[in-house]
Description:
The chain has helices spanning 8-16, 21-28, 40-53, 59-72, 89-101, 127-134, and strands at 2-6, 34-38, 74-75, 105-107, 123-125. It is α/β, with parallel strands linked by helices. The protein has one domain (2-134): Rossmann fold, CATH 3.40.50.1010. It has a 5-stranded parallel β-sheet, sandwiched between helices. Helix 1 (8-16) packs across helix 2 (21-28), helix 2 (21-28) packs across helix 6 and helix 3 packs antiparallel against helix 4 (59-72). The mean pLDDT is 90.
Amino acid sequence: MDKVVIDTNVIMSALKSSRGASYRLISMIGDERFVSCVSVPLILEYEDIIHRHFPHMKKQDINDFLDYLCAVSRPVSISFLWRPFLKDPGDDLLLELGISANAKYIITYNKRDFLGSNKFNIKIINPKEYLEILGDIP
């Protein structure tokens, strides 16, 4: 089973539209074909992004969504910081989580922001590419 880290831009895309690869991927979290890895900082980032970009969402709906992600994802403690490695500290947060989790993939729409991360043996792909790997093409 692949361990993956999912970028906030994928979460945002899934919440904007129920059509497309992001929504399909997020809907599959917890179905045992892969495990999503999370850390406390990543869940806090998800929460912040959702509150800022989706002010119409009810607080309870946001909490329920985050609680579900936490329940079906693998919690990972980050014990070693690689910062600064990438241009964006938010991306460093994902890379550190990927390294600590021994993740195979970081799933993002900003692949070019992770240049150089291949030295950690983590593949940077978008949601559609990962669905193709799973054989679940939308």
